[in-house]
Amino acid sequence: MIVAVIAGKGGVGKSTVALNLAAELDGVVVDADLSMADLPPGSGPDLHDVLAGRATPLEAVTDAGSVRILPCGRSLAGARAADPTTLGTALDAVASQYGRVVVDCPAGLSSDAGLPLLAADACVLVTRPTEAALAAAMRARELARAVETPLARVVLNRAQSMEPEPIAAALGAPVVRLPESTSLARAQHHGRPVGVVAPDCPASDRFAELAAAVHSAIRS
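and the corresponding structure tokens:
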């Protein structure tokens, strides 16, 4: 099972959702943003090395203690040496070994954002309750439609009072609201899932709900 986590613009919490979703699914989170990696780095080979043929995908997976990560390098030289067209093969290899893979995709509508969607069984779209974020989310939704990747859920991040029904209708998928959370912010600061740092907080419950819904959507 490969799940792509997408967003129409940066700064909406996409990487946070990807990390926590992978932890709830007991899978591997892959940082596929080749030029602006955001997940915690590793000490060994990374996705740049994998896509340049210098390492195998399984060699690059690292156990961060609370979630398995295939990190991405942060150098311009590494990004230039990587061949993005081999990403699908790398994701398939990780999925074959670990079963569940969550891909933190680049934000926006670049070709680098479309490649993980092509490899994914379904996607999760992350947005915030602002006019700019929702407009960008609509464009990301169209990209998923264009490559025929089903949208399993929409995550409305930092949502307090906004009703989810109009957003669900506009984007064509049920909405999971993720509230403001100091526990989530603290976990994010340390690069750890909130379910490990504060398992009883509302944000942890929402990620468990999201994981169950995504798993069910892909199996059905």
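(Above: one complete record from the training split.) The beta strands are 2-6, 28-31, 62-63, 68-70, 101-104, 122-127, 151-157, 175-178.
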